Protein 1
Amino acid sequence: MSVNAVLQQFASSGVETCFHGRHINPQIYADLNGSNWSLSAYEQRGGYQALRKILGMDGGQGLTQDEVIATVKESGLRGRGGAGFPTGLKWSFMPRQFPGQKYLVCNSDEGEPGTCKDRDILMFNPHIVIEGMAIAAYAMGISTGYNYIHGEIFQVYERFEAALEEARAAGYLGQAIMGSSFSFQLHAHHGFGAYICGEETSLLESLEGKKGQPRFKPPFPASFGLYGKPTTINNTETFAAVPWIIRHGGLAYLECGKPNNGGTKIFSVSGDVERPGNYEIPLGTPFSALLDLAGGVSGGRKLKAVIPGGSSSPVLPAHVIMDCTMDYDSISKAGSMLGSGAVIVMDETRCMVESLKRLSYFYMHESCGQCTPCREGTGWLWRLVDRIHRGEGRETDMQLLDNVAESIMGRTICALGDAAAMPVRAMVKHFRPEFEAMIQSAQQAVAV
Amino acid sequence: MVEVELDGKKVEVPPGSMVMHAAEKAGVFVPHFCYHKKLSIAANCRMCLVDVEKAPKPMPACATPVTQGMVVRTKSDKAIKAQQSVMEFLLINHPLDCPICDQGGECQLQDLAMGYGASTSRYEEEKRVVAPKDIGPLISMEEMSRCIHCTRCVRFGQEIAGVMELGMSHRGEHSEIETFLGGTVDSELSGNMIDLCPVGALTSKPFRYSARTWEMSRRKSISPHDSTGSNLVIQVKNHQVLRVLPLENEAVNECWIADRDRFSYEALSGTDRLTQPMLKQGGEWVSVDWSTALEYVANGLNEVRAEHGANAIGALVSPHSTVEELYLAGALVRGLGSQSIDSRLRYAEFASPRSKARWLGRSIASLSTLDRVLVIGSNLRKEHPLFAQRIRQAAKRGAKVCTVRSAVTDWAMPINTDIQANFSDWVGTLLGIASAVARIKGVKPLVDAFPSALAEQLANAMISGGDKAILLGNAVAHHEKAETITYICNWLSEQIGATVGFLGEAANTVGAQLVHALPRQGGSSAKDMLSGKSKALLLVNAEPGLDTLGGAESVAGVSKARMVVTLSPFKTNLGCSDVLLPVSPFTETAGSFVNAEARLQSFHAVIRPLGETRPAWKVLRALGEMLNIPGFTQNSVEEVLSAALPGASAGSCISPDLLSNEAEFPADWSEATIEPHVASMYQLDGLVRRSASLQATVDAKRFDEGVNA
């Protein structure tokens, strides 16, 4: 599909992607118009200057590996894929003196419902990811990297391949980059659309050509990753944040957000808003400001609830989310997770039972089936919610639903079990009366 | 060592151990399904979740490495709650059809559900239904809805059998174990998957619906097939063998057995069992009583001795016979003044008698830890499934496996150097390897031979590394130039520092040599006896048409004798025999086998003899007594054993003083002209030949199609 066709598709569905000009202090999405993705345009925007800087190409001293990691640590950059793990710390775990092959992997298997930020980065600003990965590879002494791209956005994969070709031709990738002693080969790989392959160890299995199933941890990828070699895996947006940090310094990035939550973050706002799309704003921006950027609740209706960080993050009722700022700590304090930054807005007309049914179906469908609680539990959750929604709920179902979700949580190999259980528990916690009303009306219908 | 506190008990385990190992050491049972000590860790069943202090979530005991001072509680509220919830999940889609399930009574899920399951289910939705699969004649996959997806069978295929024949397809609750593309499971070790399956998903096809485990007695025995001497548990009901399972013996078979050990029992209650002594009179077989039959045989032997001399009396004894049978057959023949006894039925070369027995040259267990191994003239995987399994584990740890063989067969392990040579070129090929070794070592070669590039490669591989073995297969033992090959291999072993050993064809190949079931000076060898040199022949568990190099020619040769007496559990040799004496198969007699590593293993009868069948040792003893041969006074099999192998004790290995693989310097280095005869895996002996299920396998069918599996 051509770029124009993609753009038209967005336009016709009323969805603006990322070049709408309503970001706040954007770094990754800055100055994008949908067609300036190529190397020359990226260089005009200051692209690859960070890589040149660390390699000492523009007259400077260059940065040592330790200095790069220290800068990233200082920036307070946290993993943008969902877990929010401090990136600098993760990089420092990599055994830099390890004699054999090490790998760098970019997780672009963006599959969390509601999330579409990485797609736009790779489509409209692919070189920023390439540069970020090259810097990361330099910092950790890695010579080979892979970008694992979600299988259902094939045109994005093709775009990234095109960008890779440009970067290789320009000498930003490959042997002895820009004449330095640093070499880095980067390859793109597309998955086939399994949600589970976004889980890092599952992604590694898939990248190795095996069935995408998570590995048990420990050992962690930093010691036993791709092909059993030390591997660092970061999200696309995380890598995309790195060039700015190197160019402007860690402190500048940290100051752009708030303490422990440095920098900007892209939020994919969807659901009942006037202008769904990707919004890059500094961490710590009030939720209400983000909602305003997205044009407010659609049709001027009342906000009911928000799923703040992708479908697996616990739902927050309107009064809770309206008091939150959009950053890891604030959302966490409110009882949810910033996750991947997919903000799903639900207005007063939304039926929470139906919403939960849809979410539960997704997790049942995407469970890999490897470990017992998730394989069996996700199906049970869906069947329970479906039963309530069909009007066949029983009085004990709320207790059972919460109990089954509780039984899955923390007992699975990977986080998918938790991801399936958390929305259920949050819905039961915040919107119990809605479920109970549906069950009761079903009971009355039976009685009549 | 790392000290761990487990349920209040302090235990020390080596670093790198898992909590499960610590629990085993502390004698604490942690419930589990997917964990198996011989398989890789999957941590997928989640049944072994335990409470580890300082860990926020319950941790799987099988996959959590111990740390110094770790405090583990396997029965705290947190642990029990986690285990109970996993059990609930396992049961929601399980059919709970225990009353009609073959696994009932020996099911891990059933057992653990007693401890961790609720009495009623909270799950009231429809249960998952999984389509049945047909994966061959041995394993039933009829009730795959019972599967709990522990993937033990998958990991067994990948790691132990070396062939991934089963996998988990699809995703989530649609996950199912299958062969993909509707294939069959053809591994020669496949039956172990039945044992590994913790539920009734994989069950034994031949055994299905024949008995409940608690109705059967469990009796120990030893497998009578290949030279491993696998330890068995034979399950018996109403004097019938209904099932065979492995008995764990880490030194011998670990916890595995080959499919022929497991399924050959079908022959025991087959229709061609011989249940009455029979005489051929006027071309017709007539059932007679034992005394008539034995008198007939005794008279016949006396007449032949009187007319043709004692050496005209011969005995061909299968090396699948027990030590006691081989010993008494030898004593009988020698008591009559003959030296004509042989157990080398498939051999082509009959070297002068040796006083010491050829053997594996090392322990079976040490095969698992070899660094270098050269296998000559063997289809290792099919001839010695469990030795192959051990060498596969060694190869996985980096051992280099080299081979010289005539045909390429898949051993399901990486082969470092594979030299294909026709049997006629083996001497030349090995001389080439020897000169390559000589050149590298700077010593004088045996013969100036030009080594091929592959021979150089093999020599280089075998010179490096620590623990090494040269293993000679059945095709070498049965080879026309067996002595020459053995001599060259001994020379090689001295140069490279390896052991030399014979893999050994049969359960008692070593035992037969130890009790001298071989001709001495003046006696006829198997070749002579089979070509019509004997006037009276005793065929003990031997079928000349199938067990010998000559095949049909052997039958014709045997037929020339005046009297042929077959001692067999089966109605066989009907054309060439004059007398059929029904003798016990291994399940109906006590006896002993000496396996490849010279381990003497004794067993008892597990059922009473069928019909008029009698243990062969008793028949031979009675015959000896009737012929007034001195020394035939034993009243128990133990007495026979102590006469046969004085000082040997069951379960231990025979003194190395009695073992040797030395060979004489050959007269010449000429090539062989006779192709060695090696039994196809399911034609090895009378039992496997008559097991219907084994004969329905792909390996057996390959033999029918003329391909030596």
Protein 2
Amino acid sequence: MQAYKLTLKLLFTVMLLVVTSSTVIAEEMDGKKVAFDRKKGNCLACHVMDNGDMAGNIGPPLIVMKARFPDRAALKAQIWDATVKNKISIMPPFGKHKILTDNEIEKLIDYLYTL
Amino acid sequence: MKSLLNTLTVVVMLAVVSIANATPEQDKESFQRFYTERFPDITMEDFGNGVYALDQDARNQWEAMNDFPPYEDDLEKGGELFNTAFANGKNYASCFENGGGNIRQNYPMFDTKRNTVITLELAINECRVANGEKLLPYKKGELAKIAAYMTSTSEGSPINIVIPNNGKALAAYQAGKQYYYSKRGQLNFSCSNCHIQNVGRKARSETLSPALGHTSHFPVYRMKWESFGTLQRRFDSCNKQVRAEPLEGQSEDYRNLEYFLTYMSNGLPVNGPASRK
């Protein structure tokens, strides 16, 4: 009986783990979709990233993001409106011009931190 | 290195734009110098070939395609249309200097009586109306074919846009320049963002062509269009890319933009009509 309960508990935990990790994966996928989709971020138009196809070379490669952008707010600011930092930046103001929703940007940033 | 290059270009670009109250002549000189210094191996003439002056692979394909130019039939049709008399017995030749031959290089021109910019396409339609014919749609179709034919008679003639030293003409020029450097659309791009600041770089797989020479070969036969389109049709394509509203054909903004942009290429030979992908 005791053993049975334990197994159940274990099973439950395993299931929970599976569920949570797959949502993490799903979220990462969402973030990647936001980045790659031409109608969404289309980051590949300008940035080499994550072995994406036919990437442009207008902006710097998006690599080792965690080390380079320890401050999430700074990364978000760049995506929200790049023209604050560089007045003539060609990078579209994804937040300010509502090209992406806040939620999409958060997912995108989660994904960027895996790079 | 890349970011250094980036910064350098930006500095140069600012220098291109920021000479407040520079004369058109001074603008044109710094504009042309920017490209000739950036691409010292490209001849003045070759700038008229756009992206194919920068990308050898693309150029090889393009040259192979031009063994049998895709626009040949439409160009011939343009010639026929041009030479067909109107119902009143007159023809296009009667409306233009030199019978309409070898004049492309002078357009757009500033009409000092009407105080407005007259493009070749506008002049063709005005010729029709003056002779009791109806307006043709701008940007494509018969009008683009006629303009293509007229352009072909100017092959090799240097672009020679004149900006009369008068307040109205200078204002039209300034408005065109302003349009070129202003950000627009949801994606917030200016023409200069792509064709000056990032010239030669790749947006996805598209190499960004120099603005010098941009007007020398229009109307263009684009494979994507499967027909001729005027310069203003191309403006629409670029505006759509940045999710900006395209403007009406021959709207004042587009005419002023065409005036500014063509003046920047003064001295380059007319080399159209041309094909593009």
Protein 3
Amino acid sequence: MADLAHQNVTGAHPGETRRDFLILTTAAIGGVAVAATIWPFIDSLNPARDTLAESTTEVDLVPVQLGQRLTVKWRGKPVFIDHRTPEEIKAAADVNISDLRDPQKDSDRVKKPEWLVVIGVCTHLGCIPLGQRAGDDRGPYGGWFCPCHGSVYDTSARIRQGPAPLNLAVPPYDFTSDTTIKLG
Amino acid sequence: MLKHVLAAATLSATISALPPIARAADESPPLPHQEWSFDGVFGTYDRASLQRGFQVYKEVCSVCHPVKHLYYRDLAEIGYSEDEVKAIAATYQVTDGPNDQGEMYQRPGRPSDPFVPPFPNDQAARAANNGALPPDLSMIVKAREGGADYVDALLNGYKEPPAGFNLLQGMQYDEYFPGHQIAMPPPLSDNAVTFADGTPATVPQMAHDVASFLTWAAEPNLEDRHRTGFKVMLFLVVAAGVFYAAKRKIWAPVH
Amino acid sequence: MADARPGAMSRIIRWIDYRLPFVQFLNHHLVEYPTPRNLSYWWNYGSLSGIMLVVMIATGIFLAMQYTPHADYAFDSVERIMRDVNYGWLVRYAHMNGASMFFILVYTHMFRGLYYGSYKAPRELLWILGVVILILMIATSFMGYVLPWGQMSYWAATVITNLFSAIPLIGQSIVTLLWGGFTVGNPTLNRFYALHYLLPFIIVAVVLLHLIALHRFHSNNPLGIDLKGPQDTLPFHPYFTIKDLFGLVVFLLVYAFFVFYAPNFLGSPVNSMPANPMQTPNHIVPEWYLLPYYAILRSVPNKLFGVILAFGSIFLLFIVPWLDTSPVRSARFRPVYKWVFWLLVIDVIALGWVGANPPEGLVVTVGQFATFYYFIHFLVLFPLIGKLERPRPLPLSIAAAVLQGGGTRLGGAGAPMAKP
């Protein structure tokens, strides 16, 4: 009885190919349905529209004196703003580019040479490097030093020593006046 | 079996169709049903109407009513360009802060800001409106029986109270507001707004457009929902046919 | 499924299966499993309910990833899901309407059981476990409805938790304990959220017990007679897998219609307004699937008695297997009960209508009569009809009935078929 019924489905009978095609189509439809159902769930985990919405931060540079550094928060991350001294600018420009792990000219990383703006997240594993506060260890190049695994950045925030693969990232920004920048 | 199901279904349908008794506890006339572009299974929003409605909201309603769930960036969906959206946002002053001195300050709005409310809190809103609280409008179409028809009817429904009606001090008579006494003075009058697209701004036109706008404000995903729904239903209808055929084929030797 | 090295996959599976017999288990319970060959589509509702449970858990978990269970943020977090989260509106509407679908399926499943006598010996525990599932579903859905913190969320929570104050002496203390405060508030919301997340997994456990009980004596069938042998059954796969899948697609059409085209039809507009503890809505109404119990509650002028009857209407279901005295299972062979069953269906729908409307005039009268009838139906009619009715002759076996309609025999079932 059950055997007979079973045989009817898979045994060699006329019309079997049409039946198998039907089963195949059924299974295919089922597969498409499952995939189509899963996607909205997964996509709901992607950043929502409010997270993606353009967010900008304006920074007033007047209080940042020559040689001083400022940290601001932008899109949840710290941004380092460095009012560089002429010595720091020269030190950054004098570096032989081919010596760098992530070759980049200092002039390509700034809009005005006395203002360095970088995202303060180490490109190794994401710690926040030291160097923003007075008394912080700035590392051998006078830039920044990441205490987590010893990455060393120079006065253009380029990686010089340690495990980080890339220079500190430069965020999108513009000078809305001589003394204000707009991040993002 | 089937006839029993049908009998019970008919009786139940009859019972359920009995008018809900005194649902709103008033004698409002039946709500006139308007034609809305978003009605029905294939409904969509009419962007021109939404923009006019936004203009009505901006120039008339926003004086008292907040829409806290809308962001300026949402306006991009009703046909404004990115620059237009930035410009609209910038016309508003947003409270931000605290700054490094610890003070709150004002700055021009950005697309990522929510619509600036007319009052900082409910108490201020009541104080400015004789104790009445103008409700937030972002969900109003979903929050009222009759939805867009109700909002439209209410805005068109101001009239002189019938003889003998006891209208309280400071209230207005509206045909469709439950209880007929509404604290809001009639917000619309002909040409209260000059539409950017030149459409004559009659009260029914403005009411219709602002009701459309508020429907979008409550359900911005309606078009997406209808479109996806159509694809899903079509897929399921085809699937039902295939699955039924498969079921019949498998059961054929047994029947 | 083609293998690059034929036999490798099946050897691995056999290795695992020898130590943890999952393939044998699945094969026994889902593939070969002998199922009565005459099951109608009224038997689809069990598997459909199980699928809805999975859907509710999946959509619920993804909503939980975006929802904030704090009185000041809950409503706004739901609006954020609806507006800003990718497909958030879909997950939310699927969860919201899924609850309604879940109850439609389960209520139909229960009425099927009442009509065909699926609760009768030896399936009493199967029925009882089902009632436990229903109670858990009611608790879960009630708490879930509070979470969006709309006007109806807040006030329905207030009204229903206040019911417990009807308990003499300790009632108000219990209510304060439930609330975690002097009114429904943030502590209430937080604990409802925790429990709303927990209870569905308890439901899963009870569903598993329900299935174990089911497989002990196999499904009932429209004729209500026991299985006499293999000729009465078909293997679950492929016959009932394909039938269940087809039923699923038809159900999904109904579900999809609500989700995509009428997502707020079954709900209350009032809940689109944020909770206001200082203002009560004109008519506090629970979701449609709780309306009959609400109607019974309001039909009784005495507060405590109303609470007792409302809860009692559900707990009464536990003893249904013993209230019914008929030796025959299926209403097909019970000429009187066959009609009286529909009176219950109409009664429950009438109670629903009563619950939806303000308690005035005709509504009150109908409510009292319908409440009265509900209890009479189970406590009086069930025992009486079973004793007084003359059942029609039963077929000899399912196979006989299906293949020829041959042979008749009076009385009840013989020894149930032993578990193969």
